[in-house]
Amino acid sequence: MVLFVALGLLMAGFCPAVICEPDGTLGRNTEVQEDQNNGTRVDSLALASINTDFAFTLYKELALKNPNKNVIFSPLSISAALAILSLGASNNTLEEILEGLKFNLTETPEADIHRGFGHLLHMLSQPGDQVQISIGNMMFVEKHLQILAEFKEKARALYQAEISGTDFQQPHEAKKLINDYVKKQTQGKIKELVSDLDGKTLMMLVNYIYFKGKWKRPFDARFTFESHFYLDQKRTVKVPMMKIKDLTTPYFRDEDLSCSVVELKYRGNASALFILPDEGKMQQVEASLQPETLKKWKDSLRSRKINQLYMPKFSITTDYSLEKILPQLGIREVFSTQADLSRITGAKDLRVSQVVHKAVLDVAETGTEAAAATKVGYGIALILNPLRVNFNRAFLMIIFDTNTQIPLFMAKVTNPRGN
Ligand SMILES: *[C@@H]1O[C@H](CO)[C@@H](O)[C@H](O)[C@H]1NC(C)=O
Ligand SMILES: *[C@@H]1O[C@H](CO)[C@@H](O)[C@H](O)[C@H]1NC(C)=O
Ligand SMILES: *[C@@H]1O[C@H](CO)[C@@H](O)[C@H](O)[C@H]1NC(C)=O
Ligand SMILES: *[C@@H]1O[C@H](CO)[C@@H](O)[C@H](O)[C@H]1NC(C)=O
């Protein structure tokens, strides 16, 4: 199972002549305060819950705008990039970004938000020998643009964001530089993050996540067979369907919401939650997605033997222009001529013109070669009715880091063949 995500925030200068003189305004009391508010630090669990709220809110917008389509995104990638951007924002622009990310600024001061993210990214980037997660941030900045030292330092200290001077007056070369960088960081999976760059672009912030996990109990490729996946009640597509027998794994049948929830663990500190709504119940489940629902599912999961589990093998890709979606979450001003990104350059002549987010998700048997050697623990020998879970219709998938409970990414698979 492999996930690749890249996000780019493109920033363009506007108002070429008139308002472009720097005015040095730094907003009201929104500076990162280094050592205050120690009692209200966001710990990673609080951050996980806030980020889950953001993930579900964004999910609903994406699913609404793309009905019956596959959805894949990384809430962590998007929120980390926007949090870095917020280091450069002031006034309303700043508040909208942080509130759009579901932070309550009365409860969580700005400095704590950044510390929380910084800590989280640091934890996630600890090398583990089992799950491979690499996450990083790079800012490509027009080489003539004067970036405030404070912004650079904070981005670097809190988010390990690197800065690369780029000649955006040569859009072809700049585009190649950025795309090559992303391609390299995502091991070749995301080839063209940016498709067009116009001469107005001054800055681009790129966040990428590369996740590669091996199932704790892999599927055996010898059992994979061609089968039907239901797009709706009538239409089907043929997919390679993986099969696993007698799998003991956390499971919960949610009768209230008419769905089954199965957790499949990766080796190491990551896990995937699969949610399979009953036929015709996807919309109902989607509408109920909120942090409390997720908590209920996680708390209700119990280890149980699934006699047969079927899961399509697939690779799907999505490509979003989030500048059209984020305003629905209240993040508006940063895309407008009112944008106040004065903590980046000292002037108010920057705005964000595009937010591109690409994600690729591969789910496969992965680790088949180890299948024979894998020991399966049958810790709980309950005698239950034979249970068969068949992911042969639209389902949801959420991948977590199990240490922090942060959702690394979220997907809806409506057509494993892509749509
Ligand atoms: C902050 O935003 C408000 C409303 O958009 C505006 O009236 C005010 O001038 C801004 N303050 C600064 C310091 O830019
Ligand atoms: C935490 O804040 C309290 C007051 O809010 C202060 O007395 C204390 O010294 C601070 N502790 C640290 C470690 O900064
Ligand atoms: C933010 O937190 C404060 C204090 O806990 C609370 O009164 C307020 O309603 C919260 N705002 C939102 C938008 O939830
Ligand atoms: C899982 O996380 C714990 C705590 O951070 C760490 O000690 C352990 O090495 C990790 N396990 C793997 C397999 O990466």
UniProtKB/TrEMBL annotation:
Keywords: Signal
Signal peptide residues on this chain, from the entry's feature table: 1-20
InterPro entries linked: Serpin_dom, Serpin_fam, Serpin_sf, Serpin_sf_1, Serpin_sf_2
Gene3D superfamilies given in the database record: Alpha-1-antitrypsin, domain 1 (2.30.39.10), Antithrombin, subunit I, domain 2 (3.30.497.10)
A Pfam family the protein falls into: Serpin
GO cellular component, one term: extracellular space
Domain spans labelled Serpin: 56-416
SUPFAM superfamilies according to UniProt: Serpins
GO molecular function: serine-type endopeptidase inhibitor activity
Domain of life the protein comes from: Eukaryota
CDD domains, A to Z: serpinA3_A1AC (cd19551)
Annotated family: Belongs to the serpin family.
Name of the protein described by the UniProt record: Serpin domain-containing protein
Origin species: Peromyscus maniculatus bairdii (Prairie deer mouse)
UniProt lineage: Eukaryota, Metazoa, Chordata, Craniata, Vertebrata
